[in-house]
Amino acid sequence: MSTDPAYLQATKISEITKQFSVSGELTESELSSLAKQGVDTLINVRPDNECENQISDQMWRTLARKYNLRYFFIPVKSGYYTKTDVAQFKAALLQSSKRVHSFCRTGTRASHLWALANKDKLSFADLQAALQVHGFDMQVISAMFGNDQ
After folding, report:
1. Signal peptide span per the entry (predicted)?
2. What is the pLDDT of residues 127-139, one digit of tens each?
3. Are strands 14-17 and 20-23 parallel, antiparallel or unpaired?
């Protein structure tokens, strides 16, 4: 089964830390490459049917099995992250023994969830610096940090 549709160009993968990276939707060959580079966990935060030609959650599950990856589906709408979403994301991160890759349409939701899952370990400024270098803005989630900024 090939999931490398012609409309997908090479995906920009942003390595936020040595253990965590984000991107927009991947092709199967990019997923294979990530697995070869030590990624053992894949987190999909993109709801099904966001756009035409999008790979479904079920197909991602199949691909994850093919490449021996743990797979988590935590669909979120951009800018709307519940405590449950953050807790599920954090739990998925903790289950990885190697590297984690998370994706959505552009990588923004994945990066926001990572920041929110790590707000008890890193300051807002540190998280913002880690994400800004890759072009991700945390302004939309700044209120979720309360007075920790």
Report:
1. none
2. 988 998 999 888 7
3. antiparallel
pLDDT digits (tens, 9 = 90+) for 18-48: 999 999 989 888 999 999 999 999 999 999 9
Burial environment of residue 2 by CB neighbours within 10 A (0 to 12, 13 to 18, 19 or more): exposed
Cα angle 133-86-42, degrees, rounded to a multiple of 5: 70
Helices (H) and strands (E) in the chain, counts: 5, 5
Of 145, 107, 110, residue with least CA distance to 125 = 145
Residues 6 or more apart whose Cβ sits within 8 Å of residue 58: none
Query: Domain 18-142 is classified in which CATH homologous superfamily?
Result: Protein tyrosine phosphatase superfamily (3.90.190.10)
Distance between CA atoms of residues 134 and 136, nearest Å: 6
* Exposure string over 26-45, b if 16+ CB within 10 A, otherwise e: bbbebbeebbeeebbbbbbb
Query: Is the pLDDT higher at 143 or at 64?
Result: 64
All structural domains of the chain with their residue ranges? 18-142
User: CA-CA-CA-CA torsion for 11, 19, 136, 81, nearest 10 degrees?
Assistant: 110
User: Which amino acid belongs to residue 56?
Assistant: S
